[in-house]
Amino acid sequence: MFDFVQKNSLFIKVVLGGVALTFVGFGVGSYTAATDDPYLAKVDGVKIYKQDIERALNGRPADAATRQGVLENLVRKELLLADARSSGLVVSADELRRAILDIPGLQENGKFSKTQYELFLKSQGLSAPHFEKMIGDDLLIQKQLDSIAGSSLVSNAGIERVHQLIGQSREISAWVLRPQQFATEVKIDDEAVKAYYNAQSKRYQTPDMVRAQYVVLSQDKLAASIKVSDEEIRQYFEQHRAELAPEQRRVAHILIAAGKDADAAARTKAREQAEALLKELKTNPGRFAELARARSQDPGSAAQGGDLGYFAKGMMVKPFEDTAFKLAKGEMSGVVETDFGYHILRLDDIKQPDFAAVKEQVTARLQKQKATGALREQAEKLNELAYQQADSLKAASDTLKLPLETSDWLARDSKPANPLLAHPKVLDALFSDDVLKGKHNSEAIEVAPGTLVVVRVAEHKPAAQKPLEEVAASIRQTLTDSKAAELASEKGKTLLATLKAGKAAAGESWGPMQTVSRQAPVSLSRDAARVVFSAPVAKLPAYAGAATDTGDYVIYRISKVTPAPAAKPEDQARLRQMLSQAMSNAEAMAYVESLRQRFKVVQRPITGGEDSQQ
Questions:
Q1: Whole-angstrom Cα distance, residue 412 to residue 432?
Q2: pLDDT at residue number 114
Q3: Residues 6+ apart with CB under 8 A from 613
Q4: Which of 5, 229, 271, 458 is 20 to 30 A removed from 572 (C-alpha atoms)?
Q5: What DSSP character marks residue 5?
Q6: Closest CA to 28 of 175, 167, 138, 182
Q7: Residue 78 C-beta-side C-alpha neighbours within 13 Å
Q8: What are phi and psi of 336, to 5 degrees?
């Protein structure tokens, strides 16, 4: 949303992660706010509290690992602010003002809107001074990182080396040895099957199964229940009429083409033709469609008598649009010059959706806006009730009027029809120690934007061991496949050694030739490409081999090596930027880590415990 950070947004995200800054997640508050809670971290005297984690998450539920990551990002942010302040950097009132005025989300029709600003502050639960401090902190960090972002120098030799590595191509063919070719040589006895069953007993169990109770908090359902008055709807419509009900005009035109690259003589000739045509039309306006079909050089509209259909502002080039929206219905323009040539326009119709046509859309938009704040409040209440009455969802269901639902039996790898229950975070929560063994409610889990679920285990079926007789055939096949893959690998390595020694190998069966490169590996996996491109090629043909995840062993014959073509200037520039970015990111992370040596950091795990000083 905030364009003033786009210059180094990727660089900043490398340093601070994805949730720390204002422009990524609204609501990060003042770390020095008074609170009775013990702080989680202290950076150069500035304290970070649990509430700051919640504000950074902006209502998004998160597990302990995610919260710890957010805390780390907030610590890094405070380290950068501490260093910026110690360096004497400041953000002037004018810089702050310009940054806020330039935020597109606070604008209406391209200009800052005080109404939009106030609506935004209200929806986020922020005061203007609080928001301005947040933006000021982000600008200060931007200034601090500007000094190192993109400052890494990359040598021409380094660029050429990388270009040669990624641009070199090799012509290869493959000889594949498959485990199935060796399966008949494998004999697996009953003792081997039994030994594998005993050693891998956990693999042969019916999984833990649970039936879940759950409640769903949905922004869409909240929005549908919110009442919006006709007065509010009408007021919003009037304020956003240009966006909600843009005027559309139906125009016909005749084009005498003369592209912007045409020389002066060609454009002069085209203008003269257009003016002569205009004179003819003024004499007989009724021939417009006839002349458009015969004389217009716009292939898209000539056959329709020049008719372009309806369009709104922003859809045509500016001189054409400016003229179209000045004409009265039925009026014909003079000659209009654009980059395409010379046009004569006729305005055939004007239409604009009325209030009734967009009332339903406006109502839904207002409901959703109001539901945003309601969702945040109810999400906090839902988490509070789920935590305070951890052995039941009844309080959450009754208080928030959320239906209490029960699932079918679920395993950790289930794919239930209900997509909410199929969400990985929901299944992880159901089989976590706290929910499964502790019989507690989960935290609210975001399964889709604006949709939160709290689950608990209603019933549990523990894992059970399958009898050997039931799984013996499967185990025998597994052991056979594994041994056959070993035989394929052993045979492949023997053949590879023979080929590398310059001798013919029995049974050679090479596939078709293909040209591969690091940029275009075609069918090669990452590991296979590494093997092919690390093989010495001083003498050709050269050979390399590798086992695959499927148990195949593949021998590659390298018949030809083609160096990378000379790098084009745009390729060099792209590589320089890529390498410089990578080096800058590495330097930035080292810089942030060095700040820990300069500024005292006291940090506690989110779950509590002793201080750890860094």
A1: 10
A2: 84
A3: 600, 601, 602
A4: 5
A5: G
A6: 138
A7: 27
A8: -115, 125
pLDDT at residue 197 greater than cutoff 90: yes
- Supply the pTM of this predicted model: 0.44
**Which residue in the block uniquely carries the two structure tokens 């501490």?**
82
Whole-angstrom distance, CA of residue 48 vs CA of residue 38: 9
Cβ-contact 169, 558 below 8 angstroms: no
Q: Are 290 and 278 a contacting pair, CB within 8 Å?
A: no
pLDDT digits (tens, 9 = 90+) for 421-479: 989 899 999 999 999 999 999 999 998 888 999 999 999 999 899 999 999 999 999 99
Q: How far apart are CA 270 and CA 274, in angstroms?
A: 6
> Residue 489 pLDDT more than 90?
yes
Count CB neighbours of 512 within 10 A. Answer: 6
CB 611 within 8 Å of CB 604 = yes
H-helix or E-strand spanning residue 214? strand 209-218
Residue 574: CA atoms inside 13 Å, Cβ hemisphere, count? 6
Least confident of 234-243, 261-270, 513-522: 234-243
Q: What length does the chain have?
A: 614
Helix H or strand E encompassing 42:
strand 41-43
CA distance 221 to 451: 10
With cut-offs at 50, 70 and 90, classify the pLDDT of residue 308. Answer: very high
pLDDT(27) > 70: no
Q: Could you give the C-alpha distances from 139 to 86, 101, 146, 356, in angstroms and in order?
A: 16, 14, 10, 44
* Residue 433 DSSP code: I
CA-wise closest residue to 458 among 511, 418, 404: 404
Distance CA 17, CA 606 (A): 18
Rounded CA gap, 311 and 602, in Å? 61
Cβ neighbours of residue 159 closer than 8 Å, sequence gap 6 or more: 567, 572, 575, 576, 579
Comparing CA positions, the residue from 156, 6, 148, 149 lying closest to residue 571 is 156
Structure tokens at 374: 């309601």
| Adjacent-strand bridge partners of 445 | 453
Q: What is the 3-state secondary structure (H, E, C) of 339-392?
A: CCEEEEEEEEEEECCCHHHHHHHHHHHHHHHHHHHHHHHHHHHHHHHHHHCCCC
- 464-465 vs 46-48, strand pairing mode: unpaired
Cβ–Cβ under 8 Å, residues 345 and 324: yes
Please tell me which residue, 552 or 614, carries the higher pLDDT value. Answer: 552
Q: Is the pLDDT of residue 87 over 90?
A: no
Banded pLDDT at 152 (limits 50, 70, 90): low
**How many angstroms separate the Cα of 72 from the Cα of each of 22, 81, 184?**
16, 14, 57
The 3-state DSSP class for residue 266 equals helix
Token pair, residue 401, equals 């009027």
Least Cα distance to 188 among 463, 479, 488 occurs for 479
Q: Which residue has the tokens 């399958």?
A: 466
